[in-house]
TrEMBL record:
Full-protein positions shown: 191 to 413 of 425
Known cofactor(s): Mg(2+); FMN
Gene: coaBC
Chain segments annotated as transmembrane: none
Protein's UniProt keywords contain Lyase: yes
Molecular function, one GO term: phosphopantothenoylcysteine decarboxylase activity
UniProt protein name: Coenzyme A biosynthesis bifunctional protein CoaBC
Keywords linked to the UniProt accession: Decarboxylase, Flavoprotein, FMN, Ligase, Lyase, Magnesium, Metal-binding, Multifunctional enzyme
Sequence similarity: In the N-terminal section; belongs to the HFCD (homo-oligomeric flavin containing Cys decarboxylase) superfamily. In the C-terminal section; belongs to the PPC synthetase family.
Organism, as annotated: Amygdalobacter indicium
Binding site for CTP: D99, K109, P125, D126, I127, L128, F144, K158, K162
Length: 223
């Protein structure tokens, strides 16, 4: 791909799910495999970028050459992003962050007792929103959106609300899209522009996303 040259850029990618502890042996999580984020990290590296990969717990090989920052909870992921975003030109948030965590994590294993058990959940920090609030003019912030209805309308709203430059909207209702599979179906949204991509490998989609990030980054340089 002769159009893609990320040399000299530091790109931070978040990948995978977060794990929110209930007690020392249990947690709440989601189906993210990390494949989308890892594809982005390895392609960015291949095209010359310095790559920070902030990853929730996944079963994937760490791409050789990335700076790897393993995290578990959303709070840990936020701390890692707070560390790396100010030093990056581009941040791509492919992680599936848990919106809620357990308010009081039990210090020992919760015993089976009553017929019902209630867990109180509290909101997690919104990492993408934090990154949008702390974005410098020349930085490019790329979010993801996972929706099951009104995909593009909700995605556009998300893009504005979180001050993203780009948003990758996954169509979860389509076969071969979203979690776990090696393929995805997505639309890349810019302000006033959109690119709807057909079913393809997460590696090929990663290249489209990186090209879009590069284009916006170059635009910002000349503004
Ligand atoms: O990992 P794979 O199995 O390959 O699957 C890829 C994927 C489907 C997980 C990925 O492509 C994807 O869509 N990731 C984002 C999923 C998601 O959390 O979507 P959302 O609409 O809930 O969140 C929107 C954006 O806000 C995301 O960029 C997310 O990282 C971010 N977010 C959400 C909640 C939160 N507390 N903090 C955040 O930063």
């Amino acid at each position: 791909d002769k159009d893609l040259n990320l040399t000299g850029l530091t790109i931070t990618v978040t990948a995978g799910p977060t794990q929110e502890a209930i007690d020392p042996v249990r947690f709440i999580t989601n189906h993210s495999s990390g494949k989308m984020g890892y594809a982005l990290a390895s392609k960015a590296l291949q095209y010359g970028a310095e790559v920070n990969l902030i990853s929730g717990p996944v079963n994937l090989e760490i791409p050789a050459g990335v700076n790897y920052f393993p995290v578990k909870s959303a709070q840990e992921m936020l701390a890692a992003v707070q560390d790396k975003w100010p030093l990056s030109q581009i941040l791509i948030k492919a992680a599936a962050v848990a919106d809620y965590r357990v308010e009081n994590i039990a210090s020992s294993k919760i015993k089976k007792q009553a017929e019902t058990l209630t867990l109180k959940l509290v909101k997690n920090p919104d990492i993408l929103k934090w990154a949008g609030e702390h974005k410098q003019k020349e930085q490019v912030l790329c979010g993801f959106a996972m929706e099951t209805e009104n995909l593009l309308t909700n995605a556009r709203q998300k893009m504005q609300a979180k001050n993203c430059d780009l948003l990758v909207a996954n169509d979860l209702t389509t076969k071969g899209a979203g979690f776990a599979a090696s393929t995805n179906v997505a639309t890349i949204l810019w302000p006033g522009k959109e690119l709807s991509l057909p079913l393809q490998s997460k590696e090929d989609l990663a290249l489209h996303i990186l090209r879009a990030c590069q284009e916006l980054y170059r635009q910002k340089q000349t503004e």
